[in-house]
Amino acid sequence: MSHTYHIHINGLVQGVGFRPFVCRLAKEMNVSGWVSNSNDGVHIEITADSETTNTFYNHLLQQAPVNAVISFHSIIITETKSFSGFSIKESITNQEPDLLLTPDIAICNQCKQDINDPQNNRFGYAFTTCLNCGPRYSITKALPYDRVNTTMADLKMCASCSAEYQDLENRRHYSQTNSCKDCAVSLHLFQSKEKEYSISDEEILKTIVQEFKNGKILAIKGIGGYLLMCDATNQDAILLLRDRKQRPAKPFALLYADIELASADLQIRPFEIDALKSKSAPIVLCKKKSFTGNGICLDAIAPGLDKLGIMLPYSPLLCLIATEFGKPLIATSGNISGSPILYTDKDALENLFEVADLVVTYDREILAPQDDSLIQFTDRGQKIILRRSRGLSPNYFPNPFKEIQEPVLATGGELKSAFALINKNNLYISQFLGDQGTVESQESYAQTLQHLTHILKTEPRKILIDKHPAYAVSHLGKQIAAEKNLMSPFEVQHHKAHFGAVLAENHLLGINEPVLGFVWDGTGYGDDKNIWGSEVFVYQNNEMDRVAHLEYFPQLMGDKMSKEPRLSALSILKNFPTKYFSIQKYFSKNEWQYYQKVLHQDNHVMTCSMGRFLDGLACILGIRIYNSYEGEAAMQMEALARNCSYKPYDYYSLPITNGMFEWNIFLHEFMEDWQQKEDVSLMAWKVFYSLAKTISQLSSHFFIDKLAFSGGVFQNALLTDLIIEQLSQKRHLYFHQQLSPNDECIGFGQLACYHIARQANRFTDIPYYTNANILS
């Protein structure tokens, strides 16, 4: 006996070819009915007998499209109906949005074949897409995901594309981004803000390649924003890019046409190849070879480092350019120094000619700006996300905080900022939004938040913020709470948020056993109003207790200390005045006199930052005196350590007394090696080996089996491997999985701490009435 069944499937089920998949399955099984997108996923109705329905339903769940994620599914018997065949119905828009948002998906192999096949009608077409690839989140204006709700709404499909769109057997059946040369997304090439070349798209592509050969710098529109590009084998072009962008040493990423080309310059391991070829197509840090086959300018691209960030083309436009050029290309974020990535054509034309000789745009608007995601792997294969953005944002699945039903916004941290938002049963974590120290970055943050809440048609009812009194993102959270008459924002200490994040990622929030957490980074406002950064916590029974940290040392000159490792060195040498000669040469006479007075004042804010401690050691070793970008000194010290020819098993002592790491003992032994003129790379190795040894000793000291790690210091692949080497057979180790250990995880961690507080009934909501002008 036949009945009509209503099937509801939710999750990441729009923009992944789910409706065409359902149609093909229905045709195979001779089932009649319909399928439709809605704001809460995909809805299906079929009329069939129970056995056929059961088979159909199981196939839906077990053979879903490769890019789909099913978070919820249900089937019920409904009013019996008679259908003529199976169809895709017009999307349903009357529900409130409740589904995951499809990230941008890198070009698939079939579309690559299309654009490289002279017999294919999309040969050389720079905006070729299908059901399995193309822009998604970056062009979405509203839900459900249909062309009318994207920035391709005004681009009408030609007859050929319309026929593909309607053809059940075509992989472009109901592909919302479908286009070809006859209904093209048009390219534009500008010599200046006002002057555009009047040439065809094919000629633009040829001109781009020729200008790279001529040593020019081009700004080219990608999926999530503009890229600044030039020939990676042309040192003059690279140095000119550095000069124009005011980026003296921060490494550039490289774009390679394929793995074979990249393998001439880099040692690329199988798991790195898999990552490069994945649908998110991130930048992957790979170890450079001693001899590079393509003639790339290593010293100009990544000075002082032994790894290069490389990526494969993730859009057809980049595929065509990289393949035709035939050599590696610099591909770095298109912005002016200190600003977020530029993504509108207007802003690009107004600003990027300060850096680029030519600007390439196209007629498809970007709504969600995203830098390229960045990851690395340790030698033992541990994945470390360094930047979570294009292809990885904005979803986090599964949501570990499902008991939180109200919309909650966690504003995150100030550096490497990213907010987290819970809405209905879904958790969203924004793309990397950078340092919030500039007005432009703050505007980008606010626009990204507004864009996401607009798509989801939601407003937060609870705000979570960092405790730091001067964070712009915390001020924004307070402003939102005031404007919407919400309760007082829930404040979370920075390092507790880090710890909460790694606990939640590894499903440790509800366990009964204690977890020892190591949260080591550069800076965070502590509960005692000092600058924390080497925290060791114990988590048990919904409580986080700070049990250890480095002994405090003076935080000299505020944030300037993070930019000048020489100041960190001066601070940690305060108790070793006879060793001042090791760094005095890095100061002028007047500077030395001034900083000596500052050092011996009594009113210092104090710090226990592991990041600043490592900066000081790097300066003493002569590695870096100034940081031209965040973490430069520590990164170069890691590179030196990794390439140390002899790796000893002795270490610098870092004993713990009354909850304090006595780093003065460590530094005394370190300075003895320095005075004995020990090899710098060996000393760098001993620094990281000693930190891993300290972690091992501390786990034994507390008799705790489960160890969790978060904070920017644990972006260090060498340190991570040393921890795994020493402890993986003795302890259970927990690292971040979907998130970065850096401050991008803070919003997620704030949600974790809010969850913990709710479980323990530890907080009281207070109405928040202030209407002060918090953000200028």
In DSSP terms, counting alpha (H) and pi (I) runs of 4 or more, how many helices? 23
Q: Tell me the quaternary state.
A: single chain
What gyration radius follows from the Cα positions, in whole Å? 27 Å
Distance between the terminal alpha carbons, to the nearest Å? 68 Å
* SSE class: alpha/beta
Tally the beta strands: 31
Task: Output mean pLDDT.
Answer: 95
- Low-pLDDT regions: 766-776
Shape: globular
Helix proportion range: 25-40%
The fraction of residues in strands falls at: 15-25%
Largest sheet: 11 strands, mixed
Keywords for this entry:
disordered C terminus; alpha/beta; globular
Indicate the topology.
Elements: E1 2-12, H1 18-29, E2 32-38, E3 41-49, H2 50-62, E4 69-78, E5 86-88, H3 109-116, H4 159-166, E6 187-190, H5 201-213, E7 218-221, E8 226-231, H6 235-245, E9 253-255, H7 259-263, E10 266-267, H8 270-276, E11 283-288, H9 298-301, E12 307-311, H10 316-325, E13 329-333, H11 345-351, E14 358-362, E15 374-377, E16 383-387, E17 395-396, E18 408-410, E19 420-423, E20 426-429, H12 439-456, E21 462-466, H13 472-483, E22 490-492, H14 494-505, E23 515-520, E24 534-540, E25 543-550, E26 553-554, H15 560-563, H16 565-572, H17 589-599, E27 606-607, H18 610-620, H19 632-642, E28 656-657, E29 660-661, H20 663-675, H21 680-702, E30 706-710, H22 717-727, E31 732-734, H23 746-760
Parallel strand pairs: 2-5, 7-14, 9-12, 11-15, 18-21, 21-22, 23-30, 25-29, 30-31
Antiparallel strand pairs: 1-3, 1-4, 2-3, 6-14, 7-8, 8-13, 9-13, 10-11, 11-12, 15-16, 17-20, 18-19, 19-20, 23-24, 24-25, 26-27, 28-29
Helix pairs in contact: 1-2, 5-10, 14-23, 16-18, 18-19, 19-21, 21-22
